[in-house]
Structure formats: structure tokens, C-alpha cells
């Protein structure tokens, strides 16, 4: 189970200078203002937001890459800020950069991660075989990963993230760049992992793709400008927005709030 409570995060970055050789002033970017999410086991929870809404930053905080300025994140009751290693051991994370070792085969990439997670080599190898069946990647298991297609890289990175059979699975825009068949295969794999036969995993994934959310998620958290602005099942969000089509509901829920917020900031 993953619990994110009222997290915020800002970054300080240099703005562009007026000329190539002049340094710009520092600028504060408020990437996440107030995001909350409750993701129980046996459910696929979607974090849905437009570009720059704060999805990746939220998931990076969940993965312990940096601490939130405010708010708390726990995984199976373990606070990520207090015990990051224990929390990380309970998660399989597929980030936006897949970062495979190009000289290693898919199998070796998966086993290497298993060893890092404290698995015996034989157990990690058996798990690589099992995941290769689940993700339909047996034909690439013993190929070196340089030269892999986008879909093959994604599958290998996902298998690597799942090697230690984590109870919680976190995916940042997992279908980016995948074709229709690879997307379907991923969807099927996630449904299986969420089901009692697949272990009743807690799955959280971020996306900006509406059909993906409609087909896969029992619960959706809509994020706009760094805030979680609405949540519920797809039918609940449709009812909340008073719309028939999910895209219209999303635009209404995400951008009406955004306009109101901008008006308030101008007035303040
Ligand atoms: N390290 C950083 N330094 C400065 N600004 C950052 C940093 N990381 C994220 N941001 C800014 O924070 C905001 C949210 O970014 P984030 O990547 O979390 O959004 P996102 O919802 O994942 O977007 P996308 O769908 O485009 O990937 C953006 O304006 C981004 O430019």
C-alpha cells in the first residue's frame, strides 16, 4: 500500500542569461504544491495529469530520489524519508529513463538487479524466466540489450523492476513510445499482477493518456499544476464533471481549477 500525503517540492534552477556568457538569476520552480494519493493493494491507481503537472516529481519522491519539502510518503507503513532502503525494497520502480546495461543481455540485466536486491543467482534466474513468460519477452532474454527497440527496453526494465517480486509497483508513463501490441501486453501484465493470482499488487502509474486510464485504473487521481484536484473511479469523475466523455471530464477538472487558481494568484 502506498500513501502520499500533501507533498510539495520546489527546485531552484538558473534562468537563462541575457547573453550566452552571462549567468542568469536563480529561479524557484514549484514542481509539486500539494499532492495526495492513497493506493491500496489489489488496485491500479492512475496519476493523471498534463505535461509538467508534477507526476514524475511526485513519483521520484516516492522512489526516495529526493525528499519532499513538506508532506509524508509511506510504503506498507514505512516512511520513505525515515527508512528509504526498507521502503525501496518493497517497491518495483519503472522510471522514465530505463537505463539498461547495454553489454548485458536482458537476462543478465534482470539477474544483476536481483542480486542487488539480495537474491541468490539461481532464484533470480528462475524469476527472469517467469517474468519473460509473463511479459512475452522469451525471444530476447539472451540478447545483449544494446540495439533493443523501445518496447524491448521497456519490457526488460519492467522485468528488472519486478525481479524481487515487490508488493508495490510504480510506473512512470510506462507506455511512452510503445506500439499497440506492446501496450496491450503491458496492460495484460498489469491486470494479472493486480489480480489475486498475480499477487494482488499495489500498482501506481502516471500517464497523460486518457484511454489508458479508462481501460486500466479502478481509481484515478487528477493532478494539475502540482496539485491533486480530483479523484475517484472513471464513472465517478465523469459524474463529478457532469460530462459523458472522459477527455472532457479531465479538461474540466484539471483546467477549470487551474484557471481559478491563476485568477486567485493574480488577485492576491
Ligand atoms: N530538477 C528540476 N529542476 C527544475 N525544475 C524541475 C525539475 N524537475 C521538474 N521540474 C519542473 O517541475 C514541473 C513538473 O515537472 P514533472 O516532470 O514532475 O511533470 P510531469 O507531470 O511528469 O510532466 P510530463 O508529463 O511532461 O513528464 C515542470 O515545470 C518541470 O519543469
Automatic annotation (TrEMBL):
Residues in ABC transporter domain copies: 2-250
Xref: Pfam families: ABC_tran
Keyword Electron transport: no
Keyword field: ATP-binding, Cell membrane, Membrane, Nodulation, Nucleotide-binding, Transport
Molecular-function annotations in GO: ATP binding; ATP hydrolysis activity
Alphabetical list of InterPro entries matching this protein: AAA+_ATPase, ABC_transporter-like_ATP-bd, ABC_transporter_ATP-binding, P-loop_NTPase
Family to which this protein belongs: Belongs to the ABC transporter superfamily.
Stated name of the protein: ABC transporter ATP-binding protein
Amino acid at each position: 500500500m502506498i500513501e502520499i500525503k500533501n507533498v510539495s517540492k520546489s527546485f531552484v534552477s538558473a534562468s537563462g542569461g541575457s547573453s550566452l556568457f552571462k549567468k542568469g538569476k536563480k529561479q524557484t520552480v514549484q514542481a509539486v504544491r500539494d499532492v495526495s494519493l492513497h493506493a491500496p493493494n489489489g488496485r491500479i491507481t492512475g496519476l493523471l495529469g498534463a505535461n509538467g503537472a508534477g507526476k514524475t516529481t511526485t513519483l521520484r519522491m516516492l522512489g526516495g530520489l529526493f525528499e519532499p519539502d513538506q508532506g509524508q510518503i509511506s510504503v506498507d507503513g514505512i516512511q520513505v524519508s525515515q527508512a528509504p532502503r526498507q521502503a525501496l525494497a518493497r517497491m518495483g520502480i519503472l522510471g522514465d529513463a530505463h537505463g539498461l546495461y547495454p553489454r548485458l543481455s536482458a537476462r543478465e540485466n534482470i539477474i544483476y538487479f536481483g542480486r542487488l536486491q539480495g537474491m541468490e543467482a539461481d532464484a533470480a534466474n528462475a524469476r527472469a524466466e517467469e517474468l519473460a513468460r509473463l511479459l512475452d519477452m522469451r525471444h530476447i532474454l539472451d540478447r545483449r540489450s544494446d540495439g533493443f527497440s523501445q518496447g524491448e527496453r521497456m519490457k526488460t526494465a519492467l522485468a528488472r523492476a519486478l525481479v524481487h517480486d515487490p508488493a508495490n509497483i510504480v510506473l512512470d508513463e510506462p507506455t511512452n513510445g510503445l506500439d499497440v501490441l506492446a501496450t496491450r501486453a503491458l496492460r495484460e501484465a498489469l491486470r494479472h499482477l493486480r489480480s489475486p493470482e498475480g499477487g494482488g499488487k499495489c500498482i501506481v502509474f502516471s500517464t497523460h493518456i486518457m484511454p489508458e486510464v479508462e481501460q486500466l485504473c479502478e481509481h484515478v487521481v487528477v493532478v494539475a499544476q502540482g496539485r491533486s484536484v480530483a479523484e475517484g473511479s472513471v464513472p465517478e469523475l465523469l459524474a463529478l464533471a457532469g460530462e459523458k466523455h472522459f477527455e472532457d471530464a479531465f479538461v474540466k477538472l484539471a483546467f477549470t481549477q487551474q484557471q481559478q487558481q491563476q485568477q486567485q494568484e493574480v488577485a492576491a
